Every structure is written in structure tokens, then in C-alpha cells.
Amino acid sequence: MATSASQRYMIGRVLSYVYDSGLAEIDDLAARAAALVQPVNGLDPTVFGSVAAMERDLIIFCRNAFHGPEAVGTVTSGGTESCILAVKSARDSAGAAPGTGSIVLPSTAHAAFDKAARLLGLRAVRVPVDPVTTRVSVSAMAEAIDDDTVLLIASAPNYPTGALDPIAELGALAVERGLPLHVDACLGGLALPWWPDPLPAWDFRVPGVSSISADLHKYGYAPKGASVLLHADRDRHRAGFFATTDWPGYPVVNPTLLGSRSAAGLAAAWAIVEHLGTEGFTGLVTKVAASTA
N or C: which end of the chain has fewer CB atoms below 10 A? Predict the structure, then answer.
């Protein structure tokens, strides 16, 4: 019997792109939450207070999971947007002149950072990883830093192989060189906090980590698209904003790349997080870990 496109991922026909919790009630909950905010525009949370309230709750949940009690951030449309905003924040915080500046990242870091570099007029300097562990070489990262470097990037874990970069060592390098370190946890951000086996510190517990991206539409099991970008301090968060009054219309203040935006992904992610909580995520991650083993 033929299967529809919407069913294939449930029977193992799709390697990636869709992350299924295996819980029918989650899918139903997400659909109902998205339907409730269909007319809502995420452009202005002062008009739609529900947008601000749901975003606040998701930020609190994620900053607790990532051990950053003072972290602030934004819910975005996906990992690519989170990564671009992290790079923009670093560039603008460094005051890099147009056409200058570089980011230093492992060869295994997501291609979204190359897109960010092209859009923002930066050089992306990729460095090799260990051929066996596929973890980035800290010494290679150090050698690639120059006077134009505005950001170091690491993965937790990387997308191609699932290896966790040496975040603690890279954090120490970032502190030593006076640079921010972004941890791309788009893949692992909603799994690593509840992983049953001991893991090295990879989040805001590591001195030097300035920002973390994590996708709610991966192991947060929300529909596309919902991601979160957290910053360790408010100034770096604000540096990612676009704001202007230099036109005849209303004052524009955008914390994301988008102006008008759907609240469907946000609402679905909020409902799922409220439903599952820490206990629910722990149970789902335990199953993932068992399947991995």
C-alpha cells in the first residue's frame, strides 16, 4: 500500500529533516496550538502579547537547560536564522568595518555559517578536524585567529558526524584571545541537557561561551520552524537587532531577520515544552540514547 509523504518519516523512510517524538498527542497538540495563532503576527509583541509571553517562557526553559540563568535571547524561524544572527551580533559587537572581519570554525560546522559570512561580508575560515574523532583541533583554531577575527564557532554536536567539539578548551581559547565563542547546538540543544551518559560541559557553564543556538524543531519535536538563540549578555543580544526610524513609516525594531512572521512554530514549540517539561524530555532523550547504543 502506498504511503503519503506525510507518513514516510514515521516508518523510517526519511533520514533527516523530520524529528518525530513517536507521541501522537504531541502532533495533535502542536497542530491545535498553531491553529490558535493563525491570525497572529510576530512582528510586534506589543500588539500581540501572546508572542512575548510564549517567547519568554521558551527562553526561560532553554536558559535553564543550558545553565545560563542570566541568558537572554530570541525565538527564530530555524537554525540558519539563529546562526546568521549569532554572526551578525559578533560582527556588530566588534565594530567590524564593511568588508572586513572573519569567523573561525571547524570544517564540520554547519553550512549556515558560510551563508552568514557571505551575507554579512565576512570571511569564513574553516580549520581541520581530527580524522578519527572528527573533533576540531584547538591548536588549528588558535592558528587561524588573526586581527580580523570576530567570532569562534564550535558544534554541540556537529551535524555531519555527531561529534561534540572540545567546548571547554575552545572556551579557554576564546577567553585568552578576548573573542566570543558561539556554540551551535541546533542539533543537540534539546537532547544533550538530558543525555543519560556523562558529557563534558558544552553550554554556558563553560567560561567564554557567549551564545548558543538550538532548534526547537529538531529534538524539541516542534513543527518547522522554531529555533532559539541565547546570548550570555544583553548587549550582544541587542547587537543582533535591526532598528531604524529613518523612513516615513513606523519605528522598525526587529530582533530577527524577519519583519512579519508567523507565530505558528513559536506556539507549537511553547505548547510542547509546556506539555513535556523536563521530565518528558528526559524520557524521550533516554529512548534516543538507547536507540543510538
Answer: N
Q: Evaluate whether 117 touches 103 at the Cβ level (below 8 Å).
A: yes
| Its pTM surpasses 0.85 | yes
Would you mind telling me the total number of residues written for the chain in this entry? 293
Question: Over the stretch 13-38, which tens digit does the pLDDT of each residue have?
Answer: 767 788 888 898 999 999 999 999 99
The grid coordinates of residue 61 equal 526553559
Give the strand order in the sheet containing 72-76: 72-76, 227-231, 209-215, 181-184, 149-155, 102-106, 123-127
Tell whether the model's pLDDT for residue 3 goes beyond 70: no
Distance CA 187, CA 180 (A): 21
Cα 91 → chain centroid: 18
Helix, strand, coil percent values for the chain (each to nearest 5):
40, 15, 45
Integer Cα distance of 133 and 144 in angstroms: 20
Nearest to 58 by CA among 286, 271, 210, 280: 271
Q: Average pLDDT of 119-145? A: 97
Closest CA to 80 of 112, 35, 42, 47: 112
